[in-house]
Amino acid sequence: MASSTPYTIKWGIMATGWIAETFCKDLLTDPAARDVHDVRHEIVAVSSSTSADRAAAFIKKIDGPASTSTYGSYAELVADPRVDVVYVATPHSHHFQNAMLALDAGKNVLCEKALTVTAAQARKLVAKAQEKKVFFMEAVWTRFFPLSIKVRELIASGEIGTVYRTMADLSFNETTDEDDGRVSFPDSHRMVNKDLAGGALLDLGIYALTWVFQTLYHVQPSSSSSSSGKESPTVLAAMNKYHTGADENTSIICHFPRSRAIGVATTSILVGTSPHGKTTAAPAIRIQGSRGEIQVPHPAFRPTSYSVIRREGDGAVEVVECPIPTDPKRDSWGHGMFWEADECARCLRDGKKQSVTLPWEESIAIMETMEAALRQGGVEYPEQITTDVYDAKSPLNTGNQ
Ligand SMILES: NC(=O)c1ccc[n+]([C@@H]2O[C@H](COP(=O)([O-])OP(=O)(O)OC[C@H]3O[C@@H](n4cnc5c(N)ncnc54)[C@H](OP(=O)(O)O)[C@@H]3O)[C@@H](O)[C@H]2O)c1
């Protein structure tokens, strides 16, 4: 008989920036508010690379537990025996070194997207997770939305026939009011700073690719010759570069000849998927099959509805709303990141080292796709963030302290 006591996992949070705050607020919501009763979450430690005071200010800001340990270095966090799983919430430039620091210490790891800067780094992290026999997953939260699960089920059940094409875009118009070709971020910002693996693709384009992959790759039967049995795409990319050298406007064609499918993933920081930022613009994602189409509105990372349009019929559009539950006891927090956290908890509870919803080989295949696109676009990142040699004392781990 199943236990009625929820399985609890204890989180250690690495970094105190924007996404760490958003994720932690979701961890602090009551799982029952999203009708989850089998797992729950505790934040037991937070670390900042800069100071323990910053970590303490962070936990206060999110009204986290007073018992949370607060550290001024990532090394102390990964050494904390109370921590079951480390959430890596640093810029993607840092993910390889930071995730390796945690895996090497024997910790389970949930690492923000983009998983790494290169595919070789991703492969090395997976190898380390295997060596240490720990759980490891890329934090592509959208994959775990009930909406995404439903869309994948509709495709698998043949609801729109054979899917031959997916077009997906995630773009934001970040241009200045002067319309001078600049974006509003300073050149030092992680969105455009190559030292922090800046650029539209690794930050935003990965969500467009997520939709291409979860509709054209993830759903493929695993029955043929490659290690996963799935067909990775060949990649044709076009990129324009911002004056910092990071990509500002990127389009990728993913070609799956065996399944006769093509995915088109686009991303930009010069124009928006939605000119006015609202969900009423044209669909952000079109999943096109022989018997119909599924459309998903902007933003691709956090959609709250989808539509099904069938070939046979009177042209009716079936719109399905998928609101994200909030916790009234927590000031209506609820961003949608809790579902990926629940997945981590269930994997740990069940002794799984990877999630079937976002398996290691698929994260690597997406990194390979992005790497190919960056190569074709001529974007080169600095050696410090592309090396696949782990260094516990790298400034990316120590914050130059
Ligand atoms: N899943 C999502 O929806 C989502 C949304 C936004 C971002 N992200 C991902 O989350 C990661 C962090 O993004 P963010 O928006 O949270 O960034 P952010 O606000 O700039 O925070 C990044 C944090 O990383 C730490 N850090 C360590 N070295 C740093 C350095 N040299 N420069 C800047 N920060 C440094 C800092 O925390 P300490 O000083 O405490 O160490 C900083 O607060 C990125 O990989 C991004 O792609 C995901």
TrEMBL record:
Catalyses which reaction(s): D-xylose + NADP(+) = D-xylono-1,5-lactone + NADPH + H(+)
Record has Oxidoreductase as a keyword: yes
Every GFO/IDH/MocA-like oxidoreductase domain range: 150-294
GO molecular function: D-xylose 1-dehydrogenase (NADP+) activity; nucleotide binding
Chain ranges of the Gfo/Idh/MocA-like oxidoreductase N-terminal domain: 10-137
Keywords: Oxidoreductase
Domain of life: Eukaryota
EC id: 1.1.1.179
InterPro entries attached to this UniProt entry: Gfo/Idh/MocA-like_OxRdtase_N, Gfo/Idh/MocA_domain, GFO_IDH_MocA-like_dom, NAD(P)-bd_dom_sf
Enzyme class: oxidoreductase
PANTHER family from the UniProt entry: DIHYDRODIOL DEHYDROGENASE, PUTATIVE (AFU_ORTHOLOGUE AFUA_1G07520)-RELATED (PTHR22604:SF115), OXIDOREDUCTASES (PTHR22604)
Family: Belongs to the Gfo/Idh/MocA family.
Protein name (record): D-xylose 1-dehydrogenase (NADP(+), D-xylono-1,5-lactone-forming)
